[in-house]
RNA sequence: GCCCGCAUAGCUCAGGGGAUAGAGCGUCUGCCUCCGGAGCAGAAGGCCGUAGGUUCGAUUCCUACUGCGGGCACCA
């Protein structure tokens, strides 16, 4: 505390140095604030009803260091209903909050913010909690009871996965992990478009390549087609002796199997694993399409016109009705989409999330309409997220060509350039609704302009400190063997220590918010802040004893803080599917 | 034409109605006899696209406009 703060009228309670204070997370602080408001209302020092208290009391990390550990705008929210100005409300709450054990100081600032500083002991207790909870720290039950299907990538099995797929591979998988961390039950699903004319063109292309014929104009021309053809010939040399249509189908099916297996292999190396691979063919073969039609007919939104069967999606905000069965009797792709949605719901999912590329934004209204036509509330049962394009830059030029696939860039091209961790991290780091330009020169560099290295480096640096501590005999190597009784959190009084603890305390809220908003990029941005917070702490606060110096309680307390920071970085990177190396 | 998204520092981008709008890069200045310098501290750099509206308060929400990207099917 500085003299300036004293002069500004800061009121400060007695310091609490004793060990054993309750920890004070922002959630707990919010509860204390609510209690203070309640008691003020009961004491009639605030002219309000209990019902006027907001459902959620906002407790935030102030941007400015001078504003204490936590800030709340509760006085600004209540002042109107209380018929007074915000500062007056704050003045009522200030002394009540000061009585709370663990709150060290409460300052009224600006238009009526309450800036709260915690005692070192109470704030430092958090390190003990984090170490004890381990991997569970940050997990919550905010989405408990929800069963969510998240469908992403869903590429045709007619070629390698490209950059757009790759964005979803990283973001979709991270989103699934984040939703699980918030307590939801999640299935990751990949819809295989293994039906229709694209498959036939694919088969014909591979067949032509195998026979040494020119590939059809409207076929697939990537180098991988020839590779597939050669593999098939090795597997089954007799295939060329088949005749006509039979041979084309045989090539198509063999190529399909190989290409799908390749997609699965590539995704697995990319740390993205699906619970369900759902084939469009099985959708038709299992009768799911008929069941879907039946469901929609029951709801009364199906009609015949011009020899075709239509779904009246205009009943629910679509631009035009959509054909399900064409006049020639063929099913449309849209028919599969409707059946697939109905099928997902019948498999018990409360919510179906679709991650789609920007070129599919026209699907949003019609798929929401499908949900409505099936009798569901689209607001609850379906959510469509649109992701913008990804481009790569190298040497100041856009990368357009791929060795494997001609003029599309593949997932493997990106991984070859920068590795799995950097690829995943950089794809997840940005909100999906803005176009993304990846600079490969930056991502493959080992400098701090490469965010994934910055975060991983912080983790490795902490791991190193703890290794060294174990070697010096300060503390056991495994945190599970640490003696909690020897941790005195009240010693963590440095500004940097308080800052770092405050950041760590925010982690559960960051995860819950990322889950609620379906925005995993918040995790990475947060981790970068934690890394900065750690580096600042490390720079200012010596953790280990020098040379032959005696081991102090402060050394031990700082190691607890290190372990807590390491745990949070580890947990956060885990949600992104990015490794947390012990050494780099 | 209609629909969706975007517009914030020289560049790439964060910012869920709150305080003096942030980070990295780039430019400039400092910090290693000591735990990982892949780090830290500091400086410079902004009518938050334009104009209205809602609000005690708008970069944030709404409307219009301008500019950029994407999309319109009895294709898959």
Give descriptors for this structure.
globular, Isoleucyl-tRNA Synthetase, Domain 1, RNA-binding, disordered N terminus, 16 strands, Gyrase A, domain 2, 12% strand, alpha/beta, 584 residues, five-stranded parallel beta sheet
Describe what you observe in this structure:
- With 584 residues, the chain is of the alpha/beta class.
- Among the domains are: 3-118, Arginyl tRNA synthetase N-terminal domain (Gyrase A, domain 2, 2-Layer Sandwich); 448-576, Isoleucyl-tRNA Synthetase, Domain 1, CATH 1.10.730.10.
- Helices cover 49% and strands 12% of the residues.
- The chain has 22 helices and 16 strands.
- The chain has helices spanning 3-7, 26-42, 74-82, 86-98, 120-133, 163-181, 197-211, 223-235, 244-269, 280-285, 288-299, 333-346, 363-373, 378-381, 411-418, 420-428, 440-443, 451-471, 495-505, 507-517, 521-540, 553-576, and strands at 11-12, 59-60, 70-72, 103-109, 113-118, 147-151, 185-192, 276-279, 302-305, 308-311, 322-325, 351-357, 382-387, 390-394, 397-398, 436-439.
- The strands form 4 sheets. The protein has a 5-stranded antiparallel β-sheet with strand order 1-4-5-3-2. A 5-stranded parallel β-sheet has the order 8-7-6-12-13, with helices on both faces.
- Helix 2 crosses helix 4 (86-98) and helix 19 (495-505) packs parallel to helix 22.
- The two termini are 39 Å apart.
- The model is unreliable at 1-19 (pLDDT under 50).
- The structure holds one RNA strand of 76 nucleotides.
């Amino acid at each position: 505390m500085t003299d300036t703060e004293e002069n500004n009228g800061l009121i400060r309670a007695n310091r609490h140095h004793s060990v054993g204070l309750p920890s004070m997370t922002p959630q707990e602080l919010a509860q204390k604030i609510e209690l203070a408001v309640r008691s003020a209302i009961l004491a009639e020092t605030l002219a309000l009803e209990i019902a006027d208290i907001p459902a959620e009391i906002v407790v935030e990390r102030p941007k400015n260091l001078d504003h204490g550990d936590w800030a709340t705008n509760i006085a600004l929210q209540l002042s109107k209903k209380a018929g007074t100005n915000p500062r007056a409300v704050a003045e009522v709450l200030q002394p009540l909050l000061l009585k709370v054990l663990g709150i060290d100081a409460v300052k009224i600032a600006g238009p009526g913010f309450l800036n709260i500083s915690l005692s070192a002991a109470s704030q430092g207790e958090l390190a003990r909690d984090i170490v004890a909870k381990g991997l569970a720290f940050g997990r919550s039950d905010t989405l408990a009871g929800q069963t969510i299907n998240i469908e992403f990538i869903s590429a045709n099995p007619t070629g390698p996965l490209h950059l757009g797929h790759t964005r979803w591979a990283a973001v979709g998988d991270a989103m699934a992990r984040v939703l699980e961390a918030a307590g939801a039950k999640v299935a990751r699903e990949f819809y295989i478009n293994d039906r229709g004319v694209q498959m036939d063109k694919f088969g014909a292309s591979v067949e032509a390549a195998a026979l040494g014929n020119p590939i059809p104009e409207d076929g697939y021309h990537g180098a991988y087609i020839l590779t597939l053809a050669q593999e098939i010939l090795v597997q089954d040399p007799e295939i060329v002796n088949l005749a006509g249509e039979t041979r084309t189908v045989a090539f198509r099916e063999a190529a399909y199997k190989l290409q799908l297996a390749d997609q699965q292999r590539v995704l697995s190396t990319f740390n993205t694993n699906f619970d369900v691979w759902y084939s469009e063919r099985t959708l038709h073969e299992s009768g799911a399409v008929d069941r879907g039609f039946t469901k929609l007919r029951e709801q009364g939104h199906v009609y015949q016109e011009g020899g075709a069967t239509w779904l009246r999606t205009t009943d629910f905000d679509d631009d035009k009705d959509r054909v399900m069965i064409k006049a020639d009797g063929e099913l449309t792709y849209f028919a599969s989409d409707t059946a697939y949605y109905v099928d997902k719901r019948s498999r018990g999912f409360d919510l179906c999330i679709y991650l789609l590329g920007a070129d599919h934004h026209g699907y949003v209204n019609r798929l929401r309409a499908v949900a409505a036509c099936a009798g569901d509330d689209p607001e609850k049962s379906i959510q469509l997220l649109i992701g913008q394009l990804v481009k790569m830059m190298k040497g100041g030029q856009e990368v357009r060509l791929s060795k494997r696939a001609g003029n599309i860039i593949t997932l493997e091209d990106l991984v070859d350039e920068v590795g799995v961790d950097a690829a995943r991290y950089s794809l997840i780091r940005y909100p999906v609704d803005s176009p993304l330009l990846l600079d490969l020169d930056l991502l493959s560099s080992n400098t701090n302009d490469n965010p994934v290295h910055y975060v991983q480096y912080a983790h490795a640096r902490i791991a190193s400190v703890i290794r060294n501590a174990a070697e010096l005999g300060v503390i056991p190597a495994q945190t599970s063997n640490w003696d909690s009784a020897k941790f005195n959190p009240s010693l963590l009084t440095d500004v940097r220590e308080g800052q770092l603890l405050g950041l760590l305390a925010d982690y559960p809220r960051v995860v819950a918010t990322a889950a609620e908003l379906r925005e995993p990029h918040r995790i990475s941005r947060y981790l970068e802040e934690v890394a900065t917070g750690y580096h600042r702490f490390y720079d200012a606060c010596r953790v280990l004893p020098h040379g032959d110096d005696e081991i102090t309680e402060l050394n031990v307390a700082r190691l607890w803080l290190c372990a807590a920071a390491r745990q949070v970085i580890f947990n956060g990177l885990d949600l992104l599917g990015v490794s947390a190396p012990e050494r780099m």
